[in-house]
Amino acid sequence: MMPFRISVPASSANLGPGFDSMGLALGLYIHLDVEASDHHAFFAHGSEKNQENHFIWNITEQVAARYGTALPPCKVQEVSEIPLARGLGSSASAIVAGIELANQLGNLQLTNEQKLAFGTEIEGHPDNIAPALFGGLTISTMLDDDIPSVRLHDIELDLIAYIPEVELKTEVARDCLPDTYERNYAARASAMSNLVVAALYSKDYPLFGKMLENDLFHEPFRKTLIPNFDAIREKAKELGAFGTALSGAGPTMLSFVAKGNGETVKETMAKQLEGYQVKVLEIDTKGVSIS
Ligand SMILES: Nc1ncnc2c1ncn2[C@@H]1O[C@H](COP(=O)(O)OP(=O)(O)O)[C@@H](O)[C@H]1O
Ligand SMILES: N[C@@H](CCOP(=O)(O)O)C(=O)O
């Protein structure tokens, strides 16, 4: 086996009201460096200890078992830039990395549809899995036997992420959500989501930002868990951001600003947010890749 590297981007799910459906691939990556070995070994990021039960390797074994394939012994070294449990899709990126590792080691020739279906089955929703696989901004949903997914091109915006030190597990942030929504409420919430997509398509970024900040599906129920939710949104707006939303389930927030303004807005925001990593992030356009 020739050594190879699997790289998977992070992602920001939801984009306001696109709950469990929209996601944007980001230029932060998890990498798996793989080489032949006489025994199996998985080294997690920053660890020198072999972890036989690692989250990613477990996914790889599940995929191999599903296809009845034996995996050749190899050494895997994980290197990751994606912070865990901050709303940047680390679990989905790790799942996609595990699926791709099985695909490469077992020469499974999985189609994109098979990878998306398997990843969504594990994660429970496709909004982070689809952009981690395909790159860019994806809109997808689960049907009984299919996961339709559309990719939007040419998002001409700069992105600024405000990543706090605290973690928030997605599972905990999902437990705060109502089980059901009343019909008129759900219709209004869906209308916001429709307008987010329409505004992105027509590059009407002021309208996009306005609708982004009018989510009714999840942010109203999660904002009390999120440090500085209103302050970040208001300050970014003052500095000219079109809009700011929770990234995934949070606690990271993500601002969308005019192309070319990202660094200036970032500098000012960073001064106000002690203890945060404030970053201008690129949009990843490739999704999972092998090199
Ligand atoms: N690279 C990784 N290695 C091991 N576990 C991971 C990795 N990435 C994610 N996880 C698991 O997923 C959890 C975070 O997932 P989640 O709560 O959905 O947050 P998010 O996906 O927004 O980062 C981590 O606490 C860990 O259990
Ligand atoms: N739609 C999900 C997205 C979770 O994204 P994550 O990056 O926080 O795992 C949700 O909002 O629960």
Automatic annotation (TrEMBL):
It is found in: Cytoplasm. It catalyses: L-homoserine + ATP = O-phospho-L-homoserine + ADP + H(+). Its main location: cytoplasm. Residues 197-273 form the GHMP kinase C-terminal domain. It is an enzyme of class 2 (transferase). It comes from the Bacteria. One of its GO terms (molecular function) is homoserine kinase activity. ATP binds at residues 83-93. InterPro entries: GHMP_kinase_C_dom, GHMP_kinase_C_sf, GHMP_kinase_N_dom, GHMP_knse_ATP-bd_CS, Homoserine_kinase, Ribosomal_Su5_D2-typ_SF, Ribsml_uS5_D2-typ_fold_subgr. Its EC number is 2.7.1.39. Transmembrane segments: none annotated. Pathway: Amino-acid biosynthesis; L-threonine biosynthesis; L-threonine from L-aspartate: step 4/5. Residues 55-136 form the GHMP kinase N-terminal domain. Keywords: Amino-acid biosynthesis, ATP-binding, Cytoplasm, Kinase, Nucleotide-binding, Threonine biosynthesis, Transferase. HAMAP family: Homoser_kinase. Belongs to the GHMP kinase family. Homoserine kinase subfamily. Catalyzes the ATP-dependent phosphorylation of L-homoserine to L-homoserine phosphate. This is Homoserine kinase. The gene is thrB.
